[in-house]
What does this fold into?
Amino acid sequence: MNSAWRIAREEWRYWLRSKTATAVGVAAILLIATSLVTNYLRIDAERDARQQLQAVAEETFRNQPARHPHRMVHYGHYVFRTPAPLAIADPGVDPYTGTVMFLEGHKQNTATFAPGYTQALTGPLATLSPALVYQLLVPLLLIVMGFASLAREREARTDQLVYTMSVSPTTLWLGKSAALAVLAMILSMPLAGITALAWLGGESVVISFVFWLGYALYLLCWVLMITAGSVWQRRASSALLVLLASWLLLGVLLPRVASSAAEASLPLQSNVRNNLEIAKALRDAGDGHNSADPAFNKLRAQLLAQYDVEKIEELPVNYRGIIAEAAEKKQTEIINRFARRRVDQELAQASAANRFNLLSPYLALKSFSITTANTNLEQHHQFLRDAETLRFSFVQQLNKLHATELAYVDDAKRSIDASSEQRARIDPQHWRMLDGFESERPGVTARLTTALPNLAILVLWILAAAFAGQRGAMRTAQQTNG
Amino acid sequence: MNSPSPNKVLSATNLTVNRGGQQVLNAVNFSVAKGEIFALLGGNGAGKSTTLLTFLGFIKPTNGSAQVNGATVHSDVKAVHRQVAYLPEAANLYAHLNAWENLDYFLSLAQVDNSRESINAALDTVGLASGARVRQLETYSKGMRQKVGIALAILRDAPILFLDEPTSGLDPVAIDEFNAIIVGLAERGTTVLMVTHDVYGACRVARNIGLLQKGQMVGHFAASGDEQISADEVHRMFAEHHKA
Ligand SMILES: Nc1ncnc2c1ncn2[C@@H]1O[C@H](COP(=O)(O)OP(=O)(O)OP(=O)(O)O)[C@@H](O)[C@H]1O
Ligand SMILES: [Mg+2]
It folds into this structure.
């Protein structure tokens, strides 16, 4: 054990004296710092903007003058999704899915981006999140630092001299791995800092720690793969080649294959076709603005019978409001049916892609990261559902007001008669129906449970890489001929 | 065929080794007693370094065996490493470290005395200029590096020494000093197996000389005692085998 630490310290001295190491160190610091700072500032600004804009949106709705309730249905409302605390480390799908929704009657809009979220910020630099830096670039830096750790000794045959000092091949391999592992842990410290910030920002301490732990395991996995690669290759140059190829395979090609395979096996219906289908279904359900639409004949007959009257003008409720309410209910059911289908398709595709997680520690960590950070697709879906619930609730409240607070006669004549128009407006105190919007998020236990399989995959890879490294060390020390 | 004698520290029995698909040692037999200096001579590519590497457990024999203190090397390589000091063919030390750092590192791995005093004493013995000791080895000449390697082998303080061309690159004064050192060590009981191209030096310090050619032991002479062979004689035989 002592010898392993002595070997690790010696590796550090080697790094500190070599120029590559200095260059790599500077690159690492710059990359990590840039990603941390820019991502933190962006998310922080977005969070502030959203919190303020959400209040402004609610304020504006509340302060509308006396109006016809259906005008308010179309006036609409905005909801903003507050970024999860750990989004400062991994923004996940947020930069692609949008975080603002305009809510209005008869329609489910798609999420868009907050004002100030300019396209210039969505270039490659915007996605240089700490997550990406730690998932792909830090392993690359570790490769540059560690590819030669054992191959260099073998090329110079210093390994043989080390073995004759009664150091076992396993100890030499362990020492080199320890040196690289310490470097990886030092590089993970800024991430620990940012998870601490997330904790201060309201994230649970357990989740914050587990998030860092996942990344630490992932880097350890790379450390062991690098020393294994270095020990199995006769030359440092071929070790570098093999390791770069593995990085490309595990971090770029396999993820591409995984998502392509998922897309091919479970294709999403195109948005255009989806929208056409929705439009047709909605048309068949009837237009809530047109009380003469034959789709509502049955409802009218029912109402007339219920109140025992001959004409809709004689109903004690505003027939137009009733129609609007019924139409909204029907439309929402249709819209939600399509939305659920879409969500199910997207989730099925994502879980098909997740089946590749076992094949690449990068994929396992990526899934782990967005689930633990609450920035995954499920969270986006939850936001859509919560926004829809709010939309339906305030639209139906307005429709109820429409049905109960104004007379059918005034409502029907309001475009031709000025005094009817005045009577068809209702008091603005009714607009106080909205309170703060917060999308629900899974708690600690739920996220830990989902994280566990991916953490297990990382541990499996660590064990496999350690096994390969140790076996390689034994083998190369025994047989130098060939 | 010699059979391994139990009182021998090192013995090769029908030692046969393949490297890169070719037989480079062919049924080699020899043994070295405690406190004996055995010099292995032979042309380039004869298999001398291979013999040392096999004794160190870095190469597995395809047939026969190398034994250290009666135990087959490959049955317990670690036990062998605990008893040996090794000077590689090209003194393979770390170019980014200075002499003192190199020795300190290796000795601390071996868990033997790595005090600055003993390191300096060893470097004095091999004649490495004190001004050079703080410079990184990449600034050293071949002979200077060799001296650090020899210092390491001495400081390792092992009962068995494997030396691969220890005098290569050394100036005549340093060669004399080196010869004096290993004779002194052998007198105190250290067993030395030494590969060399220096026929005259070998005859001066070794008790026995083995002549290796194309993987075969073609000559075995006593270099001291009554049947002592002269260096000129060895040289002549060497040249003869070389032509053959
Ligand atoms: N790594 C290797 N792979 C394959 N063959 C090798 C290897 N090293 C040496 N050989 C072959 O083994 C044979 C013996 O080599 P060895 O190094 O033992 O010779 P040597 O007697 O030490 O020569 P020299 O005096 O030049 O040092 C040679 O034919 C050489 O080509
Ligand atoms: Mg040689």
User: Anything to note?
Assistant: The pocket of magnesium ion (ligand 2) is lined by residues B 48-49, 89, 164 (CB under 6 Å).
